[in-house]
Amino acid sequence: MNWRKVLQLALIHVGVSITVVPVTSTLNRIMIADMGLSATLVAALIALPYVLSPVQVAMGDWTDRRLVWGRHRTPWIVIGGLMASFGSYLTAHAAYLMNAHFALGLLAAIGAFAIWGVGVNVASVSYLSLVSDLTQGLDRWRNRAISVMWTLMILSTIAISILLSVILAPFPDILAPAGEAAIYNAFGAVWLMASALVLFGAARLEAPADPDRKVHNKANDPLVAYRLLANNPSARRFFLYLLLILVSIHAQDVLLEPFGAEALGMTASVTSRLTAIWGAGVFITLTGGLPLMRRMGKKRSANLGALVAAAAFAFIIITGLINAPSLFMGAVFLLGLGGGLMTVSNLSFMLDMTVPEAAGLYIGAWGVANFSGQAIGAIASGLVRDVAFQFTGNARIGYATVFGLEIVGLLAAVWLFRHISVEEFRRDAEVRIQDVLALTVE
Alpha-carbon distance 289 to 302, whole Å? Predict the structure, then answer.
């Protein structure tokens, strides 16, 4: 492992991650607040990539065992990354088509969001598995890779958010032809940047495969992967923890910008800056999180981040009640601080929860928990917001209900994390792998 490879992994992570920014920081607000589409429908479309997340287990298991062009991971990083960048670009066109011709546009949207989603899933499990491969037994390099990857990702998220805000600033009427063209230009710029980053990052990153590499299973039984996971109690508990923490932190993804528009009267240009404000908070705790994590331990620092995020949601609810846009931006910054500390701690812990013989398999499982949590959070948040609005006629109450439930979920996750151990997981994993190998031989 060396710094060149760390930088290349970071470029890939940035390339895939920035495809999410225009969809969840701009397009969601346009579809809900400007086009007047149901928050539940918009949330379901944005969650479609996450609904497809079970592909990560199958893909992780496949890349553990199979070669493409003599390598396990990088071919799928390239294929997935290019699908993600192109699919993200198509979502903007599908949204405006849906506004003009709903049924046709909805079909196009399902296709566009699916292309984006499959690409994000395939690329994510592949490059995270490669991180695990390259840093196996090198804890210092693993922590460095995580820190650099997520720090550069947050910086790029801030930059893309500012870029979107600048491009859209001259177009207050985002549904007018000029506003529509501006959206296409912004999404197109992200498409080109993401594609270039993925291609540069993947070049000569992975060495040709070792023919003597040991894997958990050489048979072609697709149920083996799921059997390994289902029979590991520690893996089940960690999966549940990831699911709960990610539902609780990501349920706001679809609603934060529409909340700013409907509850606080912010324009599309202003709400596009929220991602940059959130990203600044994440950046601070990502860069400062490693020393804190070493001092406190991964569990305690992750739980501290969850408590800070819970406090941020409480402040966000208050801003809607007292109509305080400035305080709202401060609460979003605080949410970023908590989210950053949770991210660096949970990711480092997640990479510890693997074994060399099945790194892709377990990274795939944690990826499913990650994306499933975001899917459930997005769909549930849109549904709760719509139901509460229908009953009360007050948009603020709908949003406050979602944010309140997120607080409850974060506190429950803090309690659950106490019952998870890396050592116990690895003991269980080794036993289960040997059991499955025995069954395969028989």
Answer: 10
